[in-house]
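Case 891 in the screening queue. Each case pairs one protein sequence with one candidate compound; here the compound is magnesium ion. For every case the pipeline is the same: read the inputs, emit a complex structure as tokens, and attach any notable structural observations.

Predict complex for case 891.
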Amino acid sequence: MTKWVYTFGDGKAEGGAAMRVLLGGKGANLAEMSNLGLPVPPGFTITTEVCTAYYEGGRHYPGDLADQVDTALRAIEGTAGRKFGDAKAPLLVSVRSGGRASMPGMMDTVLNLGLNDETVEGLAAESGNPRFAYDSYRRFIQMYSDVVLDLEHHPFEEILDQRKDDQGAVLDTDLGAEDWKEVARAFKAYVEKEMGEPFPQDVRDQLWFAIGAVYGSWMNQRAVTYRRLHNIPADWGTAVNIQAMVFGNMGEGSATGVAFTRDPSTGEREFYGEYLMNAQGEDVVAGIRTPLHLTVAAKSRNGSDGLAMEEAMPEVFGELQRVYKSLESHYRDMQDIEFTVQEGKLWMLQTRSGKRSAKAALKIAVNMVEEGLIDEAEAVRRIDPNSLDQLLHPTLDPDAQRDILTRGLPASPGAASGKVVFNSDEAERRAAAGEKVLLVRIETSPEDIHGMHAATGILTTRGGMTSHAAVVARGMGRPCVSGAGSIRVDYKAEQFSVGGRVIKKGDVITIDGTKGEVMFGEVPSIQPELPGDFVTLMAWADKIRRLKVRANAETPIDAHTAREFGAEGIGLCRTEHMFFDADRILAVREMILADDTAGRRAALVKLLPMQRQDFVQLFKIMRGLPVTVRLLDPPLHEFLPHGDAEIAEVAKASGMSEKKLRSRVATLYEVNPMLGHRGCRLGISYPEIYQMQARAIFEAAHEVAAESDSTVELEVMIPLAATKREIDILKGHIDAVAAEVAQERGRTLPYLVGTMIELPRAALKADEIAETAEFFSFGTNDLTQTALGISRDDSGSFLEDYLRAEIFAVDPFVSIDVGGVGELVEIACERGRKARPGIKLGICGEHGGDPDSIRFFHQVGLDYVSCSPYRVPIARLAAAQAALEEREKDA
Ligand code: ADP
Ligand code: MG
Ligand code: MG
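Case 891 output:
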């Protein structure tokens, strides 16, 4: 026989906190509190397995469920000394849903179930408090009608308001027994009119319909959508908790409240919460009356009127304090609790680990280590790495007024304000003149990089979380809202419209890239100072992790940010990004468009000093640390001139005729540039480009070394190779330049030449490649693109469908496809190590900053991950958590 029902209460329970999977979070913790001897009204939990059985059985309950429920109900009756449906001393219960993970969209709680026209009289007589009895009845009718009968709630509110108006009452508490009796009668009449049958009077029907409503709500649209968005499997199921009622609405000695054992927004060690006297259930959060503070301290800090619970019921408050302290030390975590006081007696109705801000999470974890409740490893385990994002970017002042224009996707966190501009050149120009500008585009392309860099933030109307705008903005640490589809941009008129309003170029707007909000005007933001707890916790994480963490950076600003956030080197310096500056792109265009080697060399001569200077700056910042410089990898189309003005400009600089230039542009045009003449293919066709870059790199390294006798650990990286032969040829050039420079400077500096693994063939032939390549860095963006054959720029149109159809559990460009692309990584690691034992292995794609991917990279034994500077702390923490998980598994 399967046990479907578990009882709790009266100082004991059949379940406990460890049985969360079977009992759901609420049920497991009610059992746990009972076992701890805390005052919990008796009740029982119908397991999540019943939910699964119900759906597998075509919406029928297991045959023996009814008997088990009856037995459990009799146990409650025994403990409470009351009987369900009894006319004199009726037992009332609450019916509460609760799965493994708390889930909005599930059925709301029904309170006071078991009341009908007869039992309400009994309750009134027995308690000597008819007001309380009828207040409970009208609450029950309304809740039951809402969640079980699915009736709209506002007609009920209208009836109630009407009664208040008639009586000249303002608050619910101003109404008396007769009023509630009348309201209950009107409610029932309304239900009968709507449903065509009377409100159910049979308490057993009430109970089973309520249970059915909980299980039914598991498959309602809201719940299904929520599960899909949060990756909760449908077969987890929900549990149902049936629990004897206790009453906070019995008068002034009764109350209901909610509390956090520490402040959930700051993490301060301060009991924090609210309560209402003579109230029930969710009155506190429903906003019907203004709730009062629990502590005198909070009350005076907020300058509120009304007695704090500490003053109004000092004894019960004292007991509540003892309870919360014992819950905290038992669960060793901050708890979010719900309680009710019935005529001076405290009852606990819920406890769970409390949600908290990132800042609070850090403070609580660090304090709990100091208090001896948890150890450092546990503290590290408890922080969600992604949540750190909140702390690293400027955020809007929470107290500021907001005039919200629209919403888009929260594409890159942080807040930014600036004058609206619609093109990147103008953004750059105005920013250079000291203005704060916000770039608004329908979508962005690689040509917008300089504008995105110059802008405080980026807003696009098209494109998802992995659109160009989103990815580049995250990489740069620029706040970005993407895909704000209700905005209509008119480039010609230099304005956009949204919700009937028109915003012109130069108007100031604010975006919140953490929430996806777009606001009119400047909303003040605050640059959060990194709290001391952050530093402490990161130091613990650093002791634990094995993976090194580097940053993807090419500008001095990014390099400085990276070091501040604890990067241990640069894992990817994209030299083409150094060429996007307005004063360089011209020389780059000349180089690309030159129709012979001489023309190309002439352009390269102009670029060499600029490149060298860039590297000198970067190497100084990174002195003593490894720096991987990737040789030029431009999709050519990004660099070609567009429009007459740009063609004329290049013609003037290069001395080529405009006509000839136009034909060169046409020749270089590619149908599929991502698979075109890019990466090392360029170096094969035009060796002088990589030779110039190698010279710039080595000369810079020597210059920095000459200055203070230490330089960076240099790693020169060849992009997009598929074969050993490509690397043989290119490494030959690089080594030759290195030898030349060494001779000129009279000194040799160590360096490595390696390659990116970003094509499936390279992963498979890693053994051959490793004979020449001295390190591998996995370029997982392109590797994902080429392994799946999905373009990252064009996948927005169907990726959503793939996620909805569960073909991908997550976007493979956000979190690595462990089963496929991941296997290529594993194969390459294994074969590479075989050919070159101890070969240095790293990853520099977007995945390097994604905690789930980092877990995988740890497992395959990479040496480091490299990610955007702002994600470095996230990667450090995720790497530590991966190491802890491995320890646990080994133990
Ligand atoms: P949620 O999952 O939305 O928090 P709950 O099941 O916790 O819903 O119920 C909401 C509120 O209803 C509780 O905070 C409590 O105030 C009240 N409540 C639930 N069960 C009882 C009960 N047995 N006696 C008194 N109040 C109850
Ligand atoms: Mg609720
Ligand atoms: Mg609750």
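Case 891 observations:
- The chain has a mean pLDDT of 92.
- The chain has 35 helices and 34 strands.
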